[in-house]
Specification:
Order of helices and strands: EEEHEHHEEHEEEEHHHHHHH
Helix content: 40-55%
Distance between the termini: 43 Å
Strand content: 15-25%
Largest sheet: 5 strands, mixed, barrel
Number of domains: 2
Length: 241
């Protein structure tokens, strides 16, 4: 596990209060700790792992720890990051938030994959309506060539509303722009099934401190598995029509 050697700044956005840090590998990372909750950190790690396997451009990620001496003079940082593994997403410089001009046809297949993945993991925290804006949790470079998918701590939502998801998701227009046929279903299903092959390994990598022997975390992991395996049901695909 990497060690944080420098806290550069607290990020302005995000209710999880992430911090930009430098680790002992020389790289910079956006780090989330206790403010994201154990459940949120589990969701981040599982979704980032499966999402990368599925082919989404999710920044590289890892677990990091904060040495006590780095936090000893700041009680708030100690509370948020001390004594536990934290989720770290590699910092990608010179990126900006997704906006209306980011909708470009060359990214059509990527948008479709983002839509089906968020539907799969019940992530309704990627909203964007062109006329009104929203919270897309996507970053894009200035040339509009590269899009990065971030933030999955609110996935596997118990209050997931399918109709709202269909109308407000940042990529819904690309999914429904053309008819999804059986071939598309089978192709996405096969990619998802291949991604699921790493699930046991991913679960084994979750820090004990996140699971913490709590019934709620064990229940989350059980429901998470059930949701991910729902790709093998007819309802999963028919509900998208």
């Amino acid at each position: 596990m990497l060690q944080v050697i420098e806290i550069i700044e607290t990020m302005i956005q995000g209710f999880t209060k992430p911090v930009l840090c430098r680790a002992n590998d020389g790289e910079r990372y956006i780090v989330k700790g206790r403010e994201a909750t154990n459940a949120g950190l589990i969701k981040e790690y599982v979704c980032a792992s499966l999402g990368q396997k599925f082919g989404l451009p999710i920044p590289d990620f890892c677990l990091v720890e904060f040495p006590d001496e780095l936090l000893m003079y700041d009680g708030d940082l100690q509370r948020r990051f001390g004594g536990v593994p934290c989720f770290a997403s590699k910092y990608e410089p010179a990126l900006q938030e997704f906006d209306r001009s980011s909708y470009v046809e060359k990214h059509t297949e990527l948008f479709r994959k983002i839509f089906i993945f968020d539907y799969w993991v019940r992530n309704d925290d990627r909203t964007f309506v062109a006329e009104h804006g929203g919270n897309p949790n996507l970053l894009i470079n200035s040339s509009r060539e590269s899009i990065y998918v971030i933030d999955h701590n609110l996935a596997f939502s118990a209050d997931f509303d399918l109709e709202s998801f269909k109308s407000t998701h940042v990529a819904s227009s690309f999914w429904y722009k053309s008819q999804i046929d059986l071939f598309d279903d089978e192709a996405y299903h096969d990619e998802m099934q291949r991604s699921l092959l790493i699930l046991d390994m991913v679960m084994s990598e979750l820090p004990d401190e996140w699971v913490n022997g709590e019934i709620c975390e064990y229940e989350l992991i059980t429901s998470l598995r059930l949701q991910l395996e729902s790709i093998n049901t007819k309802e999963f695909w028919s509900d998208l029509k």
